[in-house]
Each structure stands twice: as C-alpha cells, then as structure tokens.
Write a structure and sequence with these properties.
133 residues; 4 strands; alpha+beta
Length: 133
C-alpha cells in the first residue's frame, strides 16, 4: 500500500478527479495549499518570493498497479512545460482501517460496489432514550 501525494494547479483538479474515478480510484483528500517550488528563496530582484495557491491531493492505494494508474492520471492532466506544474511523491503505508466497518488494509480501500458488504446495523434512538431529551 502507498500514499500518493500530489501538489498541482487548481485548474487541473476536475480533470484529474474525473480520470481517477474512471480508473476506479476513489477515496481522495483535497486541500488548498500555498507554496513555492524550487526557484530559490530570494527572487532575482532580491524581493521575497511569491507563494502560489495550489491543490494538494492525497490518495491511498492498495498496490503497485493502482499507484502507477494514479500517477499517470495526474501526469496526463497536469503536465505543463512551464514552471509550477507541480510535484508528486509516494511513500509506503503500514496499515489502513475503515473506521465504520473495521476492515483493514486492501479490504478497507475497496469500494462498496466491488464487494457485497452488509450494512452495519444501526440502533435508532427515539425521543425517549435520546440523551438530549
């Protein structure tokens, strides 16, 4: 299992997400971030560098195949020969647990459509036994 983290321009986000979902990669976290790439700390005119708004996408995948697919989805939609196209990196994940069901690792990363998991039984509260009544 791996976590793939990518930082890129916000205008590429919609196409990246559509491509990921077409390839059955779900469960993404998107954050707005600001930062500066590898252009140095001080600009040529000795002014402080501008920080640019980007999006940060985090995806946990179960195997090498999904990692390569996710990287290609990002590459295909964010590739730009100019500066500031972004970066991506990946690291191993030691474990994952789906909080709702207790499933672990690869089972926790599959979608409910992929498997027939019965819904968790939910005890319904009434107005009589609700703590706030």
């Amino acid at each position: 299992m791996y976590v793939l983290i990518a930082v890129f321009n916000e205008n590429s986000l919609k196409s990246v997400l559509e491509d990921l979902f077409k390839n059955n990669i779900e469960g993404v976290t998107v954050s707005t971030v600001i930062g500066k790439g590898s252009l140095g700390v001080i600009e040529a005119d000795q002014s402080a560098p501008d920080l640019f708004e980007k999006v940060k996408l985090e995806i946990v995948v179960s195997n090498d195949k999904f990692l390569e697919t996710a990287k290609e989805c990002i590459r295909a939609n964010c590739h730009d020969l100019g500066r500031g196209a972004g970066k991506m990196w990946w690291t191993p994940v030691l474990g994952v647990e789906r909080i709702r069901t207790g499933e672990r690792d690869a089972d926790a990363l599959t979608t409910q459509i992929d498997k027939k998991v019965p819904n968790v039984n939910v005890i319904q509260n009434t107005h009589i036994d609700t703590p706030c009544s």
